[in-house]
Structure formats: structure tokens, C-alpha cells
Design goal:
The chain has about 425 residues and is of the alpha+beta class. It is about 45% helix and about 20% strand. It has two domains: about 200 residues, no CATH class; about 200 residues, no CATH class.
Length: about 425
Amino acid sequence: MTKTMAQLPYHYGVKVRVFPSTEQKRLIKRNSDASRFIYNEMNGMNKDLFWLKQVKIPITIVLNRIADLTERLKKPSTAISNSHGWLNHPDFDSLMKANAIKNYKTAWKLFRQVHQAGTPKFHKRGYTQTYQTSCLYGAKVLEPAMNNGSVRLTDTHHLWLPKLGRLRFKGLPPKILERANDIRIGTTTVSMDAVGHYFVSLQIGSEHPFVAKQHAIESKVGIDLNLDNFLTDSNGQVIENPRYYRMIKGKLAKAQRKLSRRARRAKKSQRRLSESKNYQKQRLQVAKLQLKVANQRKNFLHHVSTALIKNHDLVVAEELRSKNMLRNHALAMSISDVGWRTLLGMLAYKADLYGRKFLTIDPRNTTQTCSHCGHVMTGKSKLTLADRKWTCPSCGTLHVRDHNAARNILAKGLATL
């Protein structure tokens, strides 16, 4: 019996850039808009049902509406398509509808588990597009692979998607192409960013690992993330903070002021922004600058995280809550620029991928504690951000602040094992 994606032991994700034709771009936009509409329709029905149930007086029209909404939410795909006949047009992918409903239910599930982001909210229309479809395999397919499903590779440079047809792509790693017969495709996301680049993200699974497990090298490291330099490890090595946003901040601010002026002129002339060519041209320039910073930061974080995981059996870091730290307005821009949470996320999944161990520990007193004798600096002697070097009053050891913190982080991590 063929295993499903969930039953496969190894999963991986790849994102490739695609180059659709004008007709394919139209279909992507239509499916993206329909996906957003279905999500919002589900949200609207649930909100109506919630508020109607707050009415305690047995009013017939209210009770009938509650019964109608409850019945429609049992089979939302059929109910929404029956109410909005345009969704039955052949341009729309039926699996796009199913995935939009599934994503809404997943949002509720995450809310119940985490209770941080709040209940699902209505999705606004913007300059990006996205929708999801799924790869299905026919009953006659005995061994699902990357070349025999509804989403499939036709050759090393083209893939096939439902409704869209054949798309040229680039960026698929050779190690995936070489094992195409051993890999099956799951959920597929088609997207367009604010610059107008199109991408397809493939969830793939296999019976065999995608990356060879690294050999044990008996190396453990603690890392201290900070703003003065990006990272200091327990061995004393320092990685400088590239500050990509700060390098481009002046140029971006100038471009955004120009964009704001063009928006005011368009509104003064009673032109819609979507129809204002000058506004759209400048919006594209701003989006390109922002995309450049995001790509530079992501590339930097990938290199750092991969090097840490490949060169150490154990990596220990602080459990940083960037959301709370961003409340400090003096440091908010610098904290956003370094991308600490993204790095921690990368370290977590790469540790699992390469067979390493990654831990996060409570950062309490890691900076204020002497790694040599354990003395904690408190009261008037407590260290401030300006104290980059300090001498322990108990044992007299001279410490470099960040190196000392990294050693304490590693010690805490080892104590939890």
C-alpha cells in the first residue's frame, strides 16, 4: 500500500522561480483572489454565527440564520460554491478551494494551541498573490514520484501544474532532480512577490533522508546574539553584524518619500493608485530595495546557521523573545535588522536535518554571571550595555562581555542534558 505524505519519515521543502506566460499570470491572479475570497467567506460565516449565538432571546429569524450557517459550515466548499456561482468557473482549481478552507481551519487550530496571534483575520488585497494546490496520484500509480502526479516535473527545466499547464522553472537542487523517482510531491504553493517574481514551493517527502547525517565531531558551542556584533560563540569567535537595513536606510527613505508624493498627486487628481503609472513605477522601486535587504539578510543567516550546525554536535542559544524586545523603541530597528528569530528557526530545522542537537535556554543572568566562579553582578554593580569588558570582583577574572555570556549559555545547555 502506498504511503501518504504524512506517513513518510522524511520531508523537505524547495522553492523555485517560475516564468509564466501572460495567460498563466491571469490564472494565478484569479486563483489567488478566489482563495482569499473563500478564506474571508469562511471567516465571515464564523463571525456571524458567533454574534448571532450571543442573542439570548429566541427570535425566529435569528434561529433560522444560525441553523443555516451551521449547516453551511458542515460542507463549506459546496455551500460557498452554491452561493457564489462564479467559483464554478473552469479557471479555478478545485484543490485551491479545499486548501483555502483547510488553511482557515488550521488558523483556528493554531489559535487554540498558542493564543498569541489572535483569531483568524480577514485577508486584505495587496500587491502579492498566493494560493495552494495539492499533488494527486491516480489509482493506477503504484509508485508515486515527482514525474507522475497532478503536479509533476516534465523535464529538468519544466513542471506541470493543474489549470496552469507547463511552466519553465529554475533553482531546483541537483540532489532532488537525481532522486526524482524516489520522491513524492505534496502541497504546492504558487506565489508572486511585490516585485512581480513568481515562485512555486513544493512540499516533498521520501523514505530516505534528503541530507546525509553528519559524523560526530565532539564539538559543542554556545552562542550569544547581540547588536554590537551579530554573534559571539563560546570559543571566542566573533561574527560581525552586517547591518543590511542601515546601509540602505537613507536610499529607501528617499524612495518612500517620493512614493508618498506620487500617492498624494494621484489622489488629488482623483486617480486610483492601481491606475497611476508613476505611482506603480515608484512602488516597484521601493519593493525592490526592500526585497534586496530581505534577500541579503536571509542569505547571511543561511550561511551562519549551516556553518554552526555542520561544525558542532551541540549548539546552545538564548531563547529570545523578539516581540517583547521590540517594545524598546531605541533598539527596535537594530533588533529587526539582525533577524534573531529567523536564525533560531533555521538552527532548529537544520539541526534536525543534519542529525545535530540544538537547544535554547533561559537567558536570565547569562550576561551578569562570571563563567569562572559563578559570581552574579547585582545591584549597583550590575552591568549595563555600555560595559563591554569587566573584571569579576570575586575571582578577579577579566571578561569580554559577549564571550563570557556565550560560555554561560553553553554551561546552562549542558546542565539541561
